[in-house]
Fold this sequence. Notes:
Elements: H1 2-11, H2 13-25, H3 34-46, E1 50-52, E2 62-67, E3 74-79, H4 93-108, H5 111-114, E4 117-122, H6 131-137, E5 146-148, H7 183-204
Parallel strand pairs: 3-4, 3-5
Antiparallel strand pairs: 1-2, 2-4
Helix pairs in contact: 1-4, 1-7, 2-4, 2-7, 3-4, 4-7
Amino acid sequence: MKERIYNEGQLIKERLIEISNYIYNNPELGNEEYKAVEALTTFLKEHGFEIECPYAGMETAFKATFDSGKPGKTVGYLCEYDALPEIGHGCGHNMIGPISSGAGVALSKVLSEIGGKVIVYGTPAEETNGGKVILTEAGAFDELDADKDYHREKRKATNDQFISKKGIIGKFVGFAPMICLFVGYLIIPLVFIGLSSMGSAFAGLQ
Length: 206
């Protein structure tokens, strides 16, 4: 199963890099991320996700759902895509949206076997008023059994604390790419990490 999911990620690798570069080259401030949302939701729609946009009263928020139609758990991926004033994508949000969307798509390809539902959320304005707060208050995440978000860091984060229903210890072996220069090499490893964690969620929450 892991190999299948990894291979699904490989199939969409170039498209994810393309979307990441597009968002990077078209930075948009919070609540104005129309191009980013269009790029991400178009990609998700192409892979069978049902799109709700606008969502929760925000024009640049979205909910993309892939339902297997079979009993199972519901997991979510959270996308960020807003930029910083005068800086652009200094925090790497151009990668977070494609990474979360790509992980959701790759995982959706095996749902016919394991059941359940995958939801990819577009969470705007992370740098300002915080779209996740508004989505939380609206009850957008209440149906989830587990969710995953990402953020690039300039440090090792092996000892960070996370909230979870079950604990798991993992070891990831690889290299430390420079985020800005090697975005293409970074996206797929992070997608695979996300899929590993979501696979664990599916297995652990049975």
